[in-house]
Predict the structure.
Amino acid sequence: MATAVFPGSFDPVTLGHMDLVKRVSGMFDKLIIGILTNSSKEPLCTVKERILILEELTKDMPGVEVMSFDGLLVDFVDKTRADVIIRGIRNSIDFEYELPLAQANYKLNSKADTLFLATLPEHSYISSSAVKELIRYKSDISAFVPDIVYKFIMQKFNYIN
């Protein structure tokens, strides 16, 4: 049974994230979405909120599980007995950032091999950071996030266009 881990902050979940989840879930028997608890970032949504949102978004996708983790990704790979790490690549800057991380992960744990997937062109400019910036200025985010996320953000922040 092949298992993949798709790690990230998912704060908030974007259409680009969900495109990768859908594509990867069809490639592996099991996909674990690993929500990283990153103490160096100020989150928009709590880890619990992100888990609930991703569970709702993936409820009809067999073999998809949502978990949170902190610490090293290679330790999470061990814990989940995953066969591969999934990383989305939007552009060459992402690749330059992700490649050394993938190589270091593999050096630390040879079971932590990384599979890079190119995002679809229509999602290549979407990032959680950009969506957070739009929220900060009360701009419309509906074209960048799933409807569930949009409604959640509208309600949580009393956000009106």
In short: Residues 3-124 form a domain with the Rossmann fold fold (CATH 3.40.50.620). The mean pLDDT is 93. The CA atoms of residues 14 and 145 lie 4 Å apart. The chain has one domain: 3-124.
